Amino acid sequence: MPDRGVELCWLGQSTFELRFPGANLIVDPFLSPHPDRLVPPPERKFSDLDGVLITHEHWDHLDVDACRRLAADSPSASFVAPEPILDQLGIADDRVTGLQPGGSVRVGEATVHALPACHALHVADGYAVDPRFLGYVVDAGGTRVYHAGDTIDFDGLAERLRELQVEIALLPINGRRPEREAQDIAGNLEPEEAIELAAAAGAKVAIPMHHDMFAANLGDPAHFVAHATQNHPELAIVLPARFAPLKLSFPTPDTPHPTPQP
Asked: pLDDT tens-digit profile of 113-145?
């Protein structure tokens, strides 16, 4: 592992494993079988995790069965979730930390910062910044990764990401469609909006997520790439293969773009 970098592994939807020097984390582990999955869950155990981060309570982000398996397979792992939903995890209290926007916690050798997110439990509720919805910035070894959870853009988000000097942005791109919202599917950033957020935040790398798992709620990474290529060539765009670890390294602080390594 380089002095400044991260090894990430995309497991479909919004599930990412993040391996830093001194901190192995998994975010939004949707790892259980489901009849509507287009991508099967990985056939492996996660036995060396330091932390499990949950962004909100929708079942493709808070997979209770998966959390219990992870707790058993990684007995030293701690769990981090929005404070209002802690009782939904089914994990022993001494292993769970609740965060609110602006809070932070140490997990292994990483610092996890909680950021607000703008989402909806039900479309009829309306999209709102609510403490039930979080994004996380993980800072370990001087590398900072933003996992947005489910969100649309809102005033102050890009500025907060810039303050935290985010370098890698993992962003949902399934967008918002009336026909989906009519089925009570709360949406997220459009691909173009995700690129604009990453650029405004000063990120060096943008990675799409939440676009591949359900036939009724797909996104288009091609639009993500095209908009970045045309409007923000300064952004490095990475489309990771599922289940394939990918190292992103930053050899020096002045390096404009990281070097992806298969």
From this structure: 999 999 999 999 999 999 999 999 999 988 999
Domain residue limits at 137: 5-245
- The predicted pLDDT at position 1 comes to 42
- 243-253 pLDDT per residue, tens: 999 999 986 55
Number of domains within the chain? 1
pTM higher than the cut 0.85: yes
Element of type H or E holding 29: none
CA distance 64 to 69: 9
111: domain CATH number is 3.60.15.10
Cα Dmax for the chain: 49
CA distance linking residue 254 with residue 246, whole number of Å:
21
Residues in Cβ contact with 49 at an 8 Å cutoff, skipping those fewer than 6 apart: 24, 25, 26, 70, 73, 74, 76, 77
Mean pLDDT of the chain: 95
Choose among 231, 130, 227, 235: nearest CA to 173: 227
